[in-house]
Write a structure and sequence with these properties.
ten-stranded mixed beta sheet; globular
Length: about 260
């Protein structure tokens, strides 16, 4: 079963289950298990950190036949808290894996440089930046980061996990006082998007030169010079998957350990 869902990350300690903490996975698995009277374990497309939102998260679970999957969103709407919602549930091929079948993930980061700060109705998903930001400088610096590279300088290293990623889109758009970063990649390592945004904001306000974020790609360890942007400005907005016939093939490709690209 595939679930398409969204949540306001403000009141959650991230996606993954943690002892004595309220997490998205914990709330969803517990609620699904109660509603279906079956133990449910979820696999998610992207594990978001504490405070990060999702408008287009995807998860899957293995369920016995006979479960009314199509009617599940309505049942869950009565049982879930208001800060998490399941939009749709449907049966998918057994080869579907929410994590390993994904082609790419799309994130957006919202920031405002308005002198009065974030609009009260958007304060939970928009970072208030105290200095003016140069859109041209942000986009010039972002363009230098595109492609398959080792983003070790922008990631919190996890044992056994690669930091090589293919950054497919990193661009900024302004609408009035609000700037949005559009970030897409085949996958992201831990804290990568927020670290990239933090480095780029230093360029946007004129504190660092345009080439500086890309110059960090030569490092072999996380850079202490990069400030991780606050979580609440970040949202996972979409996950792309191949057609059903290519699901198994995609999962095999994703599971392969990548090596550093040739400079």
């Amino acid at each position: 079963m595939r679930l398409d869902l969204a949540y306001d990350g403000t009141g959650f300690s991230g996606w993954a289950r943690q002892p004595e903490r309220r997490t998205v996975c914990g709330v969803l698995e517990d609620t699904l298990s109660t509603v279906l009277r079956e133990d449910v374990t979820l696999t998610v497309a992207g594990r978001t950190d504490a405070g990060v939102h999702a408008a287009g998260q995807v998860a899957h679970a293995d369920l016995p036949s006979g479960v009314d999957v199509a009617g599940l969103p309505r049942r869950l709407a009565r049982a879930l808290p208001a800060d998490v919602r399941v939009f749709s549930a449907r049966v998918v091929p057994v080869e579907f894996d929410a994590r390993f079948s994904a082609l790419r993930r799309h994130y957006e980061y919202r920031v405002t440089d308005a002198p009065f700060g974030a609009h009260p109705l958007r304060r939970s998903d928009t970072l208030a930046w105290p200095r003016p930001l140069d859109l041209g400088a942000l986009n010039d610096a972002s363009a230098l980061l595109l492609g398959e590279k080792d983003f070790c300088a922008f990631c919190k290293r996890r044992e056994g996990a690669t930091t090589i990623r293919e950054l497919q889109r990193l661009s900024w758009e302004r609408s009035g006082d609000v700037l949005t970063a559009f970030v897409s990649a085949d996958a992201f390592c831990h804290s990568m998007v927020r670290s990239l945004v933090g480095a780029l904001l230093a360029v946007g306000e004129g504190r660092k030169p345009v080439p500086w974020p890309a110059s960090l790609l030569s490092l072999t360890a996380r850079s202490s010079a990069v400030t991780v942007a606050p979580a609440h400005g970040l949202s996972l907005v979409r996950v792309d998957y191949p057609e059903d016939a290519l699901l198994a093939e995609r999962a095999l490709v994703t599971r392969n350990v990548r090596v550093a690209p040739t400079p």
